[in-house]
Design a protein that fits this description.
Layout: H1 3-27, H2 33-40, H3 43-48, H4 53-88
């Protein structure tokens, strides 16, 4: 596998990981509380199980507010990755023929 193929695989995998993160954030925000608590500086409280119901509700509101921007970022990233992969299909790689 050459550097071109490795880079394309990395782009595709990054797109899949971003999609999983965004769909988790939007579809099951309670599963993303750990990451959200790290963003807000409450990771230690979350890890120790000391988040209050108010803090959890605040984090769920944050997840709701981040959903649309995250979906927009996923759309843009997927569009760019698709364009790169499609363009790479037309690149002549020396030594591979064509």
């Amino acid at each position: 596998m050459g550097p071109l193929e490795g880079g394309l695989i990395l782009l595709i995998v990054s797109d899949a990981v971003l999609a999983a993160m965004v769909l988790t954030l939007c579809g099951r925000p309670a599963q993303a509380l750990g990451s959200l608590s790290a963003l807000t500086g409450q990771r230690a409280e979350w890890a120790a199980g000391r988040l209050t119901e108010t803090d959890e509700a605040r984090l769920l509101v944050l997840a709701d507010r981040l959903c649309l921007p995250a979906l927009a970022a996923l759309f843009v990233w997927s569009f760019l990755v698709g364009g790169v992969v499609a363009a790479a299909g037309h690149v002549v790689v020396p030594g591979l023929g064509g």
